[in-house]
Amino acid sequence: MNSQVIVAHLIQFGFTDKEAEMYYYLIKHGPKSVVALSKNLHTYRERAYRTLTSLQARGAVELKLEEHGVYVAVPLERALDTELRRHQLEYKEKKELLQKILDAEKSMHLEPLGTGCKFQLYHTLNKIASYCVRMVDSAVQHVCFILPPELSGPAVQTLAAAVIDAAKRGTEVRGVTAPIGYPNLLAKNLKIRKYDGYGGIPFLSVDSTETMTLICWTKSGGLHYEHVSAIYCDDPTYAEHLEFMFKMVWNRCTDTKTAKNSKLLMMQGSMRDHPPSKDFAGSRLHR
Q1: Is 194 helix (H, G, I), strand (E, B) or coil?
Q2: If we measure between CA atoms, which residue out of 22, 10, 6, 27 comes closest to residue 55?
Q3: What are residue 82's phi and psi, to 5 degrees?
Q4: Among 13, 16, 28, 232, which is most buried by a count of CB atoms within 10 Å?
Q5: pTM score > 0.70 for this model?
């Protein structure tokens, strides 16, 4: 094991960089004076003295009795055992102090901070959809979402299934997206309106509390999994803002069933006003 590895391990054990370097030097090269240490370790004499003082406090270095001003390293095992005991004592003291702080907090009757909201950044469509499924599965009152039509793939299908299940168990679900070709789309509590000309941020909101907002995505060639990022938040104020925006978009959108019926009526009206010519009918029959 080379010197750098040993020094690194000493630092992990609790030594500072300078302490680990000086202690290892004394182990390897034997007792040294402050002058010799500052020269060989390329540091100022005052800094070398301060490092030796802190090593003495740790129990890793001692003054050589028979030679004035010369320091000697305590055997490694003994020094590390002393360091370990020191850590254990600190842990015990801090644990006792922790309880005192918690007791003091209870007696102070502190007001809620009101800023304990959780924010989490997610990447890739799979991770985002997976967390959205968790949100929808926990929904009790309502779910609303605006999602771009380009979203596709197994992850989105899983999310769509969770949305349908939420509607089946009585949760009000409203969404603005592309018409989805699921036969269960006609579930009583599931209403979808057509995503048409919306240029804002796509998002999911659950029970006016939890939200997932897409912040980075691309429309070109479909939505690539590695090009998606979203922010999760459980701030009710932000959820209220998104749901207010959802209501405005919802009121401007056309219901998918209404749009389908309107298109059919327009086609029927056009057929009545402009019936196909005999030649056209004949050509169709001829084919």
Answers
A1: strand
A2: 22
A3: -65, -40
A4: 232
A5: no
Q: Would you state the structure tokens that stand for residue 102, as one six-digit string? A: 């918690």
Q: Which residues pair with 216 in a beta bridge?
A: 229
Burial environment of residue 18 by CB neighbours within 10 A (0 to 12, 13 to 18, 19 or more):
middle
Strand residues in the chain grouped as ranges (E): 32-33, 61-63, 70-73, 119-123, 142-146, 172-177, 190-194, 203-206, 210-216, 229-233
Spatial distance between the Cα atoms of 33 and 132, rounded to a whole number of angstroms: 65
User: Is residue 25 within 8 Å of residue 41, measured between CB atoms?
Assistant: yes
The domains found in the chain, sorted by start residue, are 3-82 (1.10.10.10), 119-258 (3.30.870.10)
- b/e for 157-175, b at 16 or more Cβ within 10 A? eebbebbbbbbeeebebbb
pLDDT confidence bin for 286, thresholds 50/70/90: very low
Q: What residues contact residue 258 under an 8 Å CB cut-off, 6+ apart?
A: none
Q: At what angle do helices 17-29 and 3-13 cross, to 10 degrees?
A: 130
Tokens of 89: 């004592």
Of 142, 152, 145, the C-alpha closest to 221 is 152
- Name 23's Cβ contacts closer than 8 Å, sequence gap at least 6: 10, 15, 55, 60, 61, 73, 79
Whether the Cβ atoms of residue 79 and residue 23 lie closer than 8 Å to each other: yes
